[in-house]
UniProtKB/TrEMBL annotation:
The protein's role, per its UniProt record: Has an important function as a repair enzyme for proteins that have been inactivated by oxidation. Catalyzes the reversible oxidation-reduction of methionine sulfoxide in proteins to methionine.
EC number: 1.8.4.11, 1.8.4.12
Signal peptide: 1-30
Family: Belongs to the MsrB Met sulfoxide reductase family.
Protein name, per record: Multifunctional fusion protein
Active site per database record: C42, C327
Highest taxon of the lineage: Bacteria
Keyword Phosphoprotein belongs to the record: no
Record's catalysed reaction(s): [thioredoxin]-disulfide + L-methionine + H2O = L-methionine (S)-S-oxide + [thioredoxin]-dithiol; L-methionyl-[protein] + [thioredoxin]-disulfide + H2O = L-methionyl-(S)-S-oxide-[protein] + [thioredoxin]-dithiol; L-methionyl-[protein] + [thioredoxin]-disulfide + H2O = L-methionyl-(R)-S-oxide-[protein] + [thioredoxin]-dithiol
NCBIfam families, alphabetized: msrA (TIGR00401), peptide-methionine (R)-S-oxide reductase MsrB (TIGR00357)
Gene that specifies this protein: msrB
Organism: Desulfoluna limicola
Keyword terms, alphabetized: Multifunctional enzyme, Oxidoreductase, Signal
This protein's record includes keyword Oxidoreductase: yes
Length: 354
């Protein structure tokens, strides 16, 4: 059609295009979506947490990680194909990031259980992160390490991170099961043990509930010999030869065992003693002060309430405004830089640096 000879049609096209741009109506421009694949036990329970996220386009239940082509639910649930029940998520990375999807994933599962998930047992119900790109692999590895370092569960994190292979969508009646069969879904979920576990470890707004129930043997494997000696045997590291005595970066210091926030770099000062020194603790820090009469001295020992770990000692020769000096062993702490607080679940403490 010659638009010059049809001014009314030309005007109509221009108006239509203007309406499309002003209202955000779909255009021919395609969204560059990405995929994320997670296994977290029964896939019925893994759809809703992701579907409600802004930026998630679709969540499909299915099977991944096995050796048989086009497996059926009956075959997978019998544990004979090597597959895991999983969800494949298609998302818009401009609205929701892979890091945010990982945060949601960790809050749906028991990542310390290598034999299944809750009432469902067998490798077909294992947890797993199936990465699609090298960038996802790196991000998932860092996320797992951060979770492991926080020691929230009292056990090692065993969730495997592997390259995504062929994903087979499950039968239609499994898709959106929680929507299409709400009564049966609620009955199953309430008896599966999943919610009971999640309630023990996460608050309603997604914050971690600290758990320091590590056995002595597990702590010996998890901690370095020096960290174990300091925290469990009330040891003292060498001055000027420890990790944080001269650390000048912004961030917070948390309990090496429980991950409980204890001190902030905003309260750290150079005491000249060769150990990290602070004028105060983080507000509401779980600190116990215990009278210590060892070595023929009268001192105040500082312990972490969460893990009952020895941290150091408290003295009254510090600078203003408190006049206190919390003299702490680096080996009892883990430092989290300011720029990593959100990623590691300590976003609330960013206000300390405003």
């Amino acid at each position: 059609m010659n638009l010059r000879s049809h001014p009314l049609q030309t005007l109509a096209i221009i108006l239509a295009l203007s309406w499309t741009l002003s209202t955000g109506a779909p255009t021919a421009m395609a969204i560059e979506t990405q995929k994320a694949t997670f296994a977290g036990g029964c896939f019925w329970c893994m759809e809703h947490p992701f579907e409600k996220l802004d930026g998630v386009i679709s969540v499909i239940s299915g099977y991944i990680g096995g050796h048989k082509e086009n497996p059926t639910y009956k075959e997978v649930s019998a544990g004979s194909t090597g597959h895991a029940e999983a969800v494949e998520i298609t998302y818009d990375p401009t609205k929701v990031t892979y890091e945010e999807l990982l945060e949601v994933f960790w809050r749906q599962v028991d990542p310390t259980d290598g034999g299944g998930q809750f009432v469902d047992r067998g490798s077909q119900y294992r947890t797993g992160i199936f990465y699609h790109t090298d960038s996802q692999k790196k991000t998932a590895t860092l996320s797992k390490a951060a979770l492991e370092n926080r020691m929230l569960f009292g056990k090692p994190v065993v969730t495997e991170i592997t390259r995504a292979g062929t994903f087979y969508p499950a039968e239609e009646y499994h898709q959106d099961y929680y929507k299409n069969n709400p009564i049966r879904y609620k009955y199953y979920r309430s008896r599966s043990g999943r919610d009971q576990f999640l309630d023990q470890h996460w608050t309603d707004d997604g914050k971690a509930i600290k758990n320091s129930a590590w056995t002595d043997e597990e702590l010996r494997q998890k901690l370095t010999p020096l960290q174990y000696k300091v925290t469990r045997e009330n040891g003292t590291e060498r001055p000027f030869e420890n990790e944080y005595w001269d650390n000048k970066k912004e961030g917070i210091y948390v309990d090496i065992i429980s991950g409980a926030p204890l001190f902030s770099s905003t309260d750290k000062f150079k005491s000249g003693t060769g150990w990290p020194s602070f004028v105060r603790t983080i507000p509401d820090a779980g600190i116990d002060e215990v009278e210590d009469n060892s070595f023929f001295m009268k001192r105040v020992e500082v312990r972490s309430a969460d893990s009952d770990s020895h941290l150091g000692h408290l003295f009254t020769d510090g600078p203003p405004p408190t006049g206190l000096r919390y003299c702490i062993n680096s080996a009892s702490l883990r430092f989290i830089p300011k720029e990593e607080l959100k990623k590691e679940g300590y976003e609330a403490y960013l206000k300390l640096f405003e």
